[in-house]
Design a protein that fits this description.
This protein is an alpha/beta fold. It is built from 9 helices and 24 strands. The longest helix has 29 residues, at about 1-30.
Amino acid sequence: MLARTGYYVRLWLFVVSSFSLAFCLHSLLQTPHTVAQEYNHHAHPTVSTRSRQCAPKNVTWRQIFTDFYISSVYPTVGFATTVELHFVILGSAKVWTRADTNCTCLYYTPQHNDSASEEGILELLPESHWEDGHNMAAGRLRCKLPATDTNKTSLRVHCEQGNLSGTVTYSMPVVTDKEPANLTFAHCGLIFGLYNENQAAVVEFIEYYRLMGVSKFFWNGMEIGERTMEVLRYYEKEGIMQLSNWILPFNQTSGKSVHYHGQVAMQYDCILKTAAHYDYTVISDLDEYFATSLQPPTFASIVHNGTSDCATVRSDFMDKNATYSDTFDPQSGLPLLRTATVTQRTNWVNPVSIRSKYVCRMRTVDLPMIHLVNRFKIYAEGGTLMVEQTSPEPEETLLLHFRREDGATVAATEEFRAAQLAPQLSVNVHKVWHQLFV
């Protein structure tokens, strides 16, 4: 009898584990990958048992030599005549300032003796924050694709600095010349421990941005808690979320430091990842809401239905005395929307260079910054910029910060533009909440 019982237990465990594996594979296959990816050996953040069965993949960093790390590689897209591969890098000041630092990309096919090499270009991305005392910063390595015979399947990157050197190998990323579907929108974001106690805020943000037109969220996570992970897993299963664990390749208590968890590298990786597959990418934090008086109130309207390649939107803080943690209706137990209940902002709109965020055709962007685009890459003959940029007046479109800011002035202006989505947003948020927690 005991032997038979053990057999059925083992059979049941096999069925459950097979189902979990199938679900994980389904989630992975939902998202197109433009570059070969690999697991590393860092521990996953604390999540529930159910979430661990399909834990988010860690971002992989590969060390070239001391204080020089390469993460992802993507082909550039757009109207440039030369296709390049861009590598996301974290490096020390020596990497970016020493003239003897150089890299070469070797393109080859295993089992064949043919190869082609291109000298790489190392560039520091804007906002290194050296002035804040950080000694690590984000940058990129650019390598042109070979002018002829682009059928190479493998890629070797070799870098040197003085007597230091190192080599890493990648599979060749897929290069596509297919234009993304018109007026499709992706979102790049970072989610971390602050939201472990505010799952309703995460659901509200995602559903708000979906109503605005975003169809896919590419988020990096840090120290995500159990209930928040359940929310993200729900959206991964729905096929509208790709979540990765953002793990730096060094310990910031070891004397190495980088600005805000390596945000510049994180954002550049997401921009490269989405540029070929979505017409526009939206850059914002999870407490920032684009609100517009245009109708319909969508990102398509903000970019004037595609006539604007990039819209940089100025920002303002909502009422600093409002409650921004999750609140619930005492009768139904369902979340109350912050975008519907907080309807006052300060009367000080930041200039475009401070705290702005943007929605752009990333295939036109060369050097992005956290709050705006530093440089575009599409030029006509003679060097004339051929990108249509807009920075709407606050009366048209504004970025609202739904968080407490100690330096903000007292709210003095009514602001209902985010609240205009409340009727449908409430329905969508409550539907998800019921499925997850009720």
